Amino acid sequence: MEIVIEVAFSGGHLYVDDFLIYNAPCSTDGIRTPVCPQGSIKRKGLENMMSCYTFHPEPMTFLAAIQTCKLTWPGATLLQIETADEQAFIANIINKTISMSNAADFGIWTGGNDVDTEHTFVWNGPTHPIAFNYTHWHPGQPNNIGGDQDCVLIQYKSSNYEWGDVNCNEKHSFICEMNYDVRHQPSHQYPSGVIG
Known about the structure:
This protein has four helices and eleven strands. It is of the alpha+beta class.
């Protein structure tokens, strides 16, 4: 494939051999200004941050779920529950949505894990691991049964969606999370379909 881009300063052409294309909208709003993916649930978080959540009912392993989140939107991760308020928000959304509530019967992946260091749980952040600063463990969890439970699951529906650790190769539904600073709003709006 050859793509030709006009270069205004030289009047010539710049030929591009290889490049990556992300799942981005055709307008510049999603490129220059972060926006939530279509169908996501929005939540205003701390310090001007907006969180967008997308629910994925198809059960996948932990690593496959991470990859699916990255394909959903650049910078997306598996769910990171960082406050009691966010835990309550997620529990409320699960309770209000039949498909999510049904999936919760079998557990929903979060991005929490202790793969690198046993008993040191982190969120698999968009660029680097983020230490837990909030937990919602079920009594007796994490228990690392069999020495092979390194990934965090929203597991206990009847106990306000408390967490448990499970084997990362299990398949569960999952929630992707994207975050952006709301202060980065466009200075003007482009008409739909106009780039530049």
